[in-house]
Amino acid sequence: MIQKYITLLFIFQLLIEINCQYVQKQREGHTATFIDNKLYILGGLSPNNVGKDFFYFDFSVPFNTQNLLLRDLSNINTVPSHFGAGSARGGVNNDTLFLCGEVGNTATATIVYKFNVQSNSWNTPITTGIKPTLYDASIGTIDHNGKMYFWEGIGSIIAILDTKNLIWEERSSIGAPNIGLKSAATLLPDNKIIYMDSSVDNLTQVYLYDTINDNWSTKTTSGTVPPKKLGASAVLGLDGQRVIVYGGTTDPLNSLYELNLLNFEWRIPKTSGKTPASRTSHRANVVGKYMVVSFGLGYNQSDENDILLLDISNNDEYIWTNEYDPTPTISPLSTMPFHKSSSNISITGAIVGSLIVCALIILLLYLWNKNSCRNNKARNNTSLNNQGISGSPNIEIHNHGREAEPLDNEIVHNHGRETIELPVYNHGRE
């Protein structure tokens, strides 16, 4: 009887914690942050509702996007309802969810929120520096030093939050283009942020902000140039040499484009699987070998899943799929200064392994040679003993450069003791 009550209690708790129907509804302007194999979804704007929802999907296990399970954390969420905010994984140990931007939908100084994924708790840290007013932080980008860059596409200020030291910084955006809100952006391997203009009819130009040298540059593109991509997303390919752009308005037929970073040429990549409709105001993350698209506008929930998976491990053909496989994949990010690629690791391992083998061979040769010398010395001493002479270590036998053959009346010096003459036999050795 007790076991039945325990079982019912467990099922009741499971129904409370895993609730797909209550939380999983179409939304835009939410945040999606990947930490410790969990994709945390927070806030957003859904029909007739400014979101306070907070939940995550578990990416440590296989799943099918047609049958998603999530953990609802809305009951512990202390962040005001919001949309259009920016989030990132940062902090001293790179294990904290940071949220800032248009929190509460008021044009006031930005408030920073931190979520501890270990204790499942929120807090409002104290920051220093001048707090900016961010109307749209959705294209905020974090670098590999834990600094979040916020530039809305307009205005003269780039706001930077140092998530390790909790300091706000400001940089001038003189020379930056006026590209409007809701542009796509992502960080490149050379610590530059690439921005896709959402205010023009096509993407014949892209803009680069150098986070190290604090300057802007423009690149003219070629190839199959995509039209305006308002509300699109951009992620870096697994090889660090291409940017994958998904969604946006005005191009319902081709929702996916790829920009080669070596020659800045656009192309429509080859794909297989069921191609989804183009979405806007969604979020895109790279998880393992997948580009993971979450929610957005422009799709029918009865026809498509809220979460889309694009396998980008093969540059020759991407695959739209419903099946997520958490098995680690080899990522050739050899151009990434912050990332040791698998190929580099393999080469390093091969070199280290070869050095170890060589060292072992040298050690074995040394021990064999030392043992051979010891055996030779033992045989010489035995030969001397057979002639009635003690194998004293003070006895020195001289050949004086002659061949090792039986000699008569060879002189043996005993260093202070009586010198005697005796025949010495080397038995054919040097």
UniProtKB/TrEMBL annotation:
Annotated signal sequence range: 1-20
Entry-linked InterPro entries: Gal_Oxase/kelch_b-propeller (IPR011043), Kelch-typ_b-propeller (IPR015915)
Transmembrane segments: 345-368
Gene3D superfamilies named among the record's database cross-references: Kelch-type beta propeller
Organism superkingdom: Eukaryota
UniProt keyword annotations, A-Z: Kelch repeat, Membrane, Repeat, Signal, Transmembrane, Transmembrane helix
Pfam families from the UniProt entry: Kelch_KLHDC2_KLHL20_DRC7
PANTHER family hit by this protein: ACYL-COA-BINDING DOMAIN-CONTAINING PROTEIN 5, FIBRONECTIN TYPE-III DOMAIN-CONTAINING PROTEIN
Name listed for the protein in its UniProt record: Galactose oxidase
